[in-house]
């Protein structure tokens, strides 16, 4: 019960409040007790001075005895619980008035002090179950001590008052502490109620209901911010989960197709004897499918390294014109085999900072796609031009084009548009995802423009080495 955030918030504050209340009540009690003792002492001194006056000016103890009842009672001194005693210079009792039980008390300490120092003195003695407060007041005449007036009263009324005061302070303190603790416990529970609901929802999400979301309270506080942040995290996790699920399914499909082809061709070849030419054809087809699977596996490994953060770029100063022409030379035989023409238009002084092999891979993937989807006899134009404190590599083909509904998803992994499936073009749907990662890792961006039947243009912007680097967010549209 006393564990968790609720207890850690309320209990330390309750303990601190208890200490503050105790210190405050102790201060009040001490001040109140001091005021009561001061009032009693002032009353005793007043009575002693008046008794001394009567004894000194009214002819001794007979007049004093006759006038003792005229001593005005004080509110701090009960009239029936008061002792008046007259002592001689040697400390002997000359006269005393008061209840018999009070006469048993002595105020030797205060009397001795008054006789020796000729100054009044207070003293507290124990009498039965209560204390007795004394004042000893010296009375002088003709420059010598004539007698000492002692007035005493029990402190039981004051002690009873202080006892009631202690009880009330403790009662009020306990009541206030209980109310504050209970209120804090209740308020903290109300404040943490959304957190408990969030925890219950999170447990359900952990059980496999990844489409659920936390209910964010419209409170504008940290709890709402936590819920929205958690929901954003779940959105990203759900996206990653679905991407991994789709990735696994697509990878299985992409690898199963060539395996199925090879299995079928080999089974057919094993059923009956075939000519060497037919056997060679089967082996060539199997090798082609193996090469296709090898390319898929290589790209899967690349994406796996990207996702794990292990893909490291070897950054250096790169001549983009030279890199572009080198990539075009690699794919020129493939373009000629398809009956396509590669047209290269480049710019001099195109220096960037990047990984040359990765940049060649980017251009190669774009060229590979353009060659696959270009008609026989078509042309593919590759240009390099300065733009926006950087350089733009554009690869334009005259192929089938990409449907507008497919354009937002062409850079997703394993996504292949409807045209690529209907034309049965061999591919894995991974190349453009890798191109996007290469461009963005170099501080650039990649875009595509396409129309059905008119071809496509893929444009990559990379920041130049000589100019101030303008990142993807701030660069103008290509």
Structure notes:
- It contains eleven helices and twelve strands.
- The longest helix has 53 residues, at 5-57.
- The strands form three sheets. The protein has a five-stranded antiparallel β-sheet.
- The protein has three domains: 5-162, Beta-Lactamase (2-Layer Sandwich), CATH 3.30.450.20; 222-307, Orthogonal Bundle (Helix Hairpins), CATH 1.10.287.130; 314-463, Histidine kinase-like ATPase, C-terminal domain (Heat Shock Protein 90, 2-Layer Sandwich), CATH 3.30.565.
- The protein has helices at residues 5-57, 60-67, 100-103, 108-117, 156-206, 222-271, 276-308, 320-337, 356-373, 418-422, 431-441; strands spanning 83-87, 93-97, 121-127, 130-141, 144-154, 316-319, 341-345, 351-354, 379-386, 390-396, 445-451, 455-463.
- The model is unreliable at 468-478 (pLDDT under 50).
- It has 478 residues and is an alpha+beta fold.
Oligomer: single chain
* Gyration radius over CA: 52 Å
Largest sheet: 5 strands, antiparallel
Helix share, percent? 40-55%
Strand order of the largest sheet: 2-1-5-4-3
CATH class of the largest domain: Alpha Beta
- Average of per-residue pLDDT values: 80
Quick one: how many beta strands? 12
- CATH fold group of the largest domain: Beta-Lactamase
Strand content: 15-25%
Number of domains: 3
Overall form: rod-shaped
Structural class: alpha+beta
CATH architecture grouping of the largest domain: 2-Layer Sandwich
- Tell me the distance between the termini: 62 Å
SSE string: HHEEHHEEEHHHEHEEHEEHHEE
CATH superfamily of the largest domain, by name, is: PAS domain
Give the low-confidence spans. Answer: 468-478
Total DSSP helices: 11
């Amino acid at each position: 019960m006393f564990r968790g955030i609720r207890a850690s918030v309320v209990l330390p504050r309750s303990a601190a409040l208890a200490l503050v209340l105790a210190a405050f009540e102790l201060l009040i009690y001490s001040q109140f007790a001091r005021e009561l003792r001061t009032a009693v002492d002032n009353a005793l001194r007043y009575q002693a001075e008046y008794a001394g006056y009567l004894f000194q000016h009214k002819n001794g103890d007979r007049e004093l005895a006759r006038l003792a009842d005229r001593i005005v009672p004080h509110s701090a001194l009960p009239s029936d619980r008061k002792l008046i005693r007259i002592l001689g210079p040697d400390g002997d009792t000359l006269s005393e008035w008061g209840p018999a039980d009070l006469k048993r008390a002595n105020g030797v300490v205060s009397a001795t002090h008054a006789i020796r120092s000729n100054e009044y003195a207070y003293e507290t003695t124990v009498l039965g179950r209560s204390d007795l407060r004394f004042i000893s007041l010296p009375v002088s005449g003709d420059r010598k001590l004539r007698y000492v007036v002692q007035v005493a009263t029990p402190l039981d009324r004051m002690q009873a008052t202080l006892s009631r005061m202690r009880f009330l302070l403790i009662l009020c303190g306990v009541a206030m502490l209980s109310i504050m603790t209970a209120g804090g416990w209740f308020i903290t529970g109300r404040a943490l109620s959304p957190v408990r609901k969030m925890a219950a929802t999170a447990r359900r999400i952990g059980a496999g209901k990844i489409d659920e979301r936390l209910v964010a309270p419209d409170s504008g506080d940290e709890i709402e911010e936590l819920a929205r942040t958690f929901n954003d995290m779940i959105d990203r996790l759900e996206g990653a989960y679905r991407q991994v699920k789709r990735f696994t399914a697509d990878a299985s499909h992409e690898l199963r197709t060539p395996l199925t082809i090879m299995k079928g061709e080999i089974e057919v070849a094993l059923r009956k004897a075939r000519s060497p030419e037919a056997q060679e054809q089967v082996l060539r087809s199997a090798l082609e499918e193996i090469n296709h699977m090898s390319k898929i596996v290589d790209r899967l490994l690349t994406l796996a390294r990207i996702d794990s953060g292990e893909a490291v770029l070897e950054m250096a100063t790169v001549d983009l014109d030279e890199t572009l022409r080198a990539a075009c030379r690699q794919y020129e035989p493939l373009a000629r085999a398809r009956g396509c023409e590669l047209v290269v238009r480049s710019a001099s002084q195109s220096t960037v900072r990047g990984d040359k092999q990765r940049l060649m891979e980017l251009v190669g993937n774009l060229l590979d796609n353009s060659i696959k989807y270009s008609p026989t006899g078509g042309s593919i134009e590759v240009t390099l031009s300065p733009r926006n404190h950087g350089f733009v590599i554009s690869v334009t083909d005259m192929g089938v084009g990409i449907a507008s509904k497919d354009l937002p998803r062409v850079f997703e992994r394993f996504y292949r548009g409807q045209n690529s499936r209907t034309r049965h073009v061999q591919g894995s749907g991974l190349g453009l995802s890798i191109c996007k990662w290469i461009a963005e890792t170099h501080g650039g961006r990649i875009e595509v423009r396409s129309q059905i039947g008119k071809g496509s243009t893929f444009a990559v912007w990379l920041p130049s080495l000589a100019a101030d680097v303008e990142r993807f967010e701030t660069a103008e549209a290509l």
